[in-house]
């Protein structure tokens, strides 16, 4: 994942939310995936780069092996950026179209 020194984790509590056995989980996932990025391109070809990062497939704090995957730095960065953009789109939509209060609650 991005390093803290570069500031990419600035303001994030992500590292603090990782389980105490994260180093072991991370190594287990990397070994399971053969230390290769598991990203697949549209034609089904798998990335040939070495995996440097372990990513949560679904965002959140599910640290189960089925929710973890090995990615190269570039594909992890791309996935993170896409997730951030989607989160911003959702937040913008909520701001533009606030949820209407139920008439019975007015």
Describe this structure in words.
With about 110 residues, this protein is mainly alpha-helical. It has one domain (about 20-95). It is built from 2 helices and 2 strands, in the order H-E-E-H. It has helices spanning about 20-30, 75-95; strands spanning about 55, 70. Strands 1-2 form a two-stranded antiparallel ribbon. The chain is elongated, with a radius of gyration of 18 Å. Mean pLDDT is about 85; it is low at about 1-5.
Helix content percent band: 25-40%
Oligomer: single chain
- Counting DSSP E segments of at least 2 residues, the number of strands comes to 2
- Biggest sheet, strands in spatial order? 1-2
Rg computed from alpha carbons, rounded to a whole number of angstroms: 18 Å
Region (Disordered): 76-106
Protein name: HNH nuclease domain-containing protein
Biased composition (Basic and acidic residues): 85-106
Domain HNH nuclease: 24-77
List the helices and strands and how they pair.
Elements: H1 22-32, E1 53-56, E2 68-71, H2 73-96
Antiparallel strand pairs: 1-2
InterPro entries: HNH_nuc
Domain HNH nuclease: 24-77
Biased composition (Basic and acidic residues): 85-106
Search tags:
single chain; 106 residues; two-stranded antiparallel ribbon; 2 strands; elongated
Brief synopsis:
Residues 24-77 form the HNH nuclease domain. The chain has 106 residues and is mainly alpha-helical.
